[in-house]
Amino acid sequence: MKPLPELISQVSGLIVEISEHPDYQSLVKKGYQPDLNLADAQTAIVYLLWEVAPPPLDKLEVEVNG
To answer: The whole model's pTM is what?
Structure first.
């Protein structure tokens, strides 16, 4: 069985592939607008990855808008 962080990373890559796929792009051009989209799915995957494999605090970049 693969480690969960590895599976999450694979899913993230698949979401990118789906978003770039010509068939998906065709659906979008035809007006496909689900309530939750691929960007929402990608965000959920990132949050899950942060939960199971949090990045080290010294590696985080914080942007402050002033």
So the answer is: 0.75
